[in-house]
Structures are given as structure tokens and as C-alpha cells.
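FAQ

Q: What does a record look like?
A: Structure on top, sequence underneath. For example:
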């Protein structure tokens, strides 16, 4: 007996009910798939912003204790020239093409000569900054090797102080030993941080200038590592931790995910929303399939009795209804996939933009392709459809043949 052909014939008996069930599955799958594709692009954009926009790189190495005791006694935990050299050698032996960029963070007051405001600065070598920024940030203002006193301000900070490219500014900081130190700076341009909280505070300055202001010659508070090729931060952290331990160096290694709190918070929220939407869709699919199967069983009770009378076993009845559920789920998923691709193309072509929470500039509403989640959702929907068909079909199969044949 060809179960597939019989199941297809049975679905065509009541096209309205079958179409309604298929549409409910298709719409549910499409909703999950579109949100999944959207979150995939959001995660990719947040990673790009963290790794290249915030210049976090893929890994950050600091002396053990820097993130706790280093706030009170920074002079004890700064990386000295010999430590920087040893760590850079270890990193390049493991990853020859990796970028190793010493960094130094400091804070203080920035002034245009009339008003002052606080700033949070990152000292980085101009050549390292260009590599860390990457190709996608090529048009953004950057430090210049030819201008040792040049700084790049966040757009909000530049507007607050009324500074434009070519203007002069003054920076006042507290040195490593608690003394006041100041320097004149030339504004090379401005950039958007992508974070509303930093837009009026952040700036970049050359590493040598930061070391001079902080009175920490040739020292750094961390090393930023940009790995070549596909992102593999977790594996690289494990390997470098083993190498540093073998070399007798006590360092803490963090990935860009560890340092980007915004990424973790947004990802956690998006994953929670995705799970909520998935649960709603699964509940709708289970109820739709269960309702369709129950109605089909009631309408075909005498047919089931006839099939049982001519020798069809109980398991055969279950397989027949399971095949019908499989067809409904399969057609629904295929229809949902087609709808997803069509809606995705329309949304991406519309070039819709919005400003995300805590963001400082608009981003495009882009829906990507999330093949693994789509396949997993399909498999889950099919599995639940089969399970939803089992209960009513088993009850029908267990019903006495004589009772089924006498059903009106």
C-alpha cells in the first residue's frame, strides 16, 4: 500500500482544512525564519562594531590582576617593554599573521580653550589603528603617523567642544604617579562610536602621546590581538593561555565577547525573544495539526474500521495519519521557506534604516540567511507534527472494528 499516495488523496478530501493547516505552519515558520535571519545580521553587525569599530580586536591580554587591583595601583600591573616583547613573540609564534597592538587607556579633561569636558582616551599606534579598523571602516577618521600630536574625537565630543578638523585642543590628565600633565593636540577628524554613552567622551590618540601624558614610557595596559582569517577567538584564547602559562607569564586573556557588554546584552535579549517566538509557533503548529488529525479521524472512522477489517494493523493506521501530518508539515515548511525568501528580498531591497537602542547612528534593517536555524526549525516542526498525529491516530486504531464500522 502506497501510504504517501493515500495520504495525499486524504488531504485533498478537505482542501480548505488542509490549506488552513499548511498556511498556519508556513506563516509560523516564516516568522521564525525572518527573525532568525534578522538576528544573525544584528549579531554580525555588533561583532563588526566591537572588533573594528571599538578596536577591541579578537583578544585582549593584560597582566593578571589588572582589571581589579590595577585600578588602584596601575603602576604594578602595566605591561613593561620586556613583557610586551615576550607576549608578542608568543602570539606571533602561534599566529604568525596576527596583529599585536599595545594599548594604553587614560582619562582626563579636554578643552577648546574656553570650555572643558571629560574624555576617555585610547592610545594606539596609528599604523595599528588602521589595521584594526579594517576595510569596512576605511572612510572613518584615523590617526596619522605624520602627526604625532594628532587626535581623533568622537563626533559628540567634537560637537560639544565645537572642534573640527584642523582645530587645536588641550588635554589634561593625571599621570601614573598622580601628577597633572597636559599637552596640545591637533584634531584630525571625528568618528561615530556606535554607542550613545561614549559619543560625547571618547577619543583616540597616538600611543606615544598617551605614554608621554601618562608618564609611562614604552608601557601599555594591554595588548590587543587581531587574528587573521575566520573568527576563532575562543580557540585562540585557549591556545595562548597554554603558551603563556608554559612561558611563566601570568596574564588574563579576554575575547571581544567578554569585553563587549552591549553585544552580550543584545544577544541575550534577542535569543530570549527568538525562543519566545519559537514556542508560540510550535504551540500553534501542534494545535493545528492535532485539530486537523482529530477532525480527519472523526470523519473517517468507518473508513478506518474498513481498513482494519481487511487486515490493516493498528500500526498501519498510525503510519497513515503520520504520513498525512508529515505532508502537511513538509508543505507548510516549504511554503514558509518560499515566503521567507520573498519577504527577505523585499525588506532588504527597501533599505529600511533605524537607530538601535544606545546607538548613535542609523543602521539598515537587513535580514540574512540562517541556514542552520532554519533547518533545525523545519526538523522540529516536522517532529512535533508527527507527534501531534500519533495520539488521535492511536485512539482510532485501538477502537473496536465493529464499533468503527457502526459509527455514523
Amino acid at each position: 500500500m502506497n501510504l504517501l499516495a493515500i495520504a495525499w488523496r486524504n488531504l485533498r478530501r478537505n482542501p480548505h482544512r488542509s490549506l488552513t493547516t499548511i498556511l498556519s505552519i508556513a506563516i509560523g515558520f516564516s516568522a521564525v525564519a525572518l527573525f532568525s535571519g534578522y538576528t544573525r545580521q544584528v549579531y554580525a553587525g555588533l561583532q563588526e562594531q566591537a572588533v573594528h569599530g571599538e578596536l577591541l580586536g579578537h583578544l585582549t591580554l593584560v597582566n593578571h590582576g589588572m582589571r581589579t587591583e590595577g585600578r588602584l595601583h596601575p603602576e604594578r600591573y602595566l605591561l613593561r617593554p620586556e613583557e610586551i616583547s615576550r607576549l608578542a613573540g608568543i602570539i606571533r609564534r602561534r599566529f604568525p599573521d596576527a596583529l599585536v597592538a599595545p594599548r594604553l587607556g587614560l582619562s582626563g579633561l579636554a578643552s577648546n580653550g574656553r570650555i572643558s569636558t571629560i574624555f576617555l582616551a585610547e592610545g594606539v599606534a596609528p599604523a595599528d589603528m588602521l589595521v584594526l579598523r579594517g576595510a569596512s571602516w576605511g572612510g572613518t577618521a584615523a590617526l596619522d603617523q605624520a602627526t604625532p600630536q594628532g587626535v581623533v574625537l568622537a563626533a559628540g565630543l567634537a560637537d560639544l567642544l565645537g572642534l573640527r578638523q584642523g582645530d587645536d585642543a588641550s588635554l589634561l590628565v593625571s599621570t601614573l604617579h598622580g601628577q597633572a600633565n597636559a599637552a596640545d593636540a591637533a584634531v584630525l577628524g571625528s568618528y561615530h562610536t556606535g554607542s550613545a554613552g561614549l559619543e560625547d567622551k571618547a577619543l583616540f590618540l597616538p600611543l606615544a602621546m598617551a605614554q608621554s601624558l601618562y608618564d609611562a614610557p614604552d608601557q601599555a595596559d594591554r595588548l590587543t590581538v587581531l587574528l587573521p582569517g575566520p573568527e576563532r577567538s575562543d580557540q585562540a584564547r585557549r591556545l595562548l593561555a597554554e603558551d603563556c602559562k608554559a612561558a611563566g607569564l601570568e596574564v588574563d586573556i579576554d575575547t571581544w565577547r567578554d569585553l563587549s557588554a552591549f553585544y552580550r546584552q543584545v544577544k541575550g535579549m534577542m535569543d530570549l525573544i527568538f525562543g519566545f517566538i519559537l514556542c508560540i509557533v510550535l504551540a500553534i503548529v501542534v494545535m493545528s495539526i492535532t485539530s486537523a488529525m482529530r477532525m480527519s479521524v472523526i470523519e473517517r472512522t468507518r473508513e478506518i474500521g474498513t481498513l482494519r477489517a481487511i487486515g490493516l494493523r493498528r500500526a498501519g493506521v498510525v503510519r497513515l495519519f503520520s504520513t498525512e501530518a508529515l505532508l502537511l508539515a513538509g508543505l507548510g515548511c516549504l511554503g514558509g521557506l518560499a515566503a521567507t525568501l520573498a519577504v527577505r528580498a523585499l525588506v532588504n531591497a527597501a533599505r529600511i534604516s533605524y537607530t538601535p537602542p544606545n546607538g548613535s547612528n542609523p543602521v539598515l534593517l537587513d535580514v540574512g540567511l540562517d541556514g542552520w536555524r532554519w533547518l533545525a526549525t523545519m526538523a522540529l516542526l516536522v517532529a512535533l507534527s508527527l507527534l501531534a498525529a500519533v495520539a488521535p491516530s492511536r485512539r482510532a486504531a485501538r477502537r473496536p472494528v465493529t464499533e468503527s464500522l457502526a459509527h455514523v
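Q: Is there anything notable about this one?
A: DSSP finds 14 helices and eleven strands in the chain.
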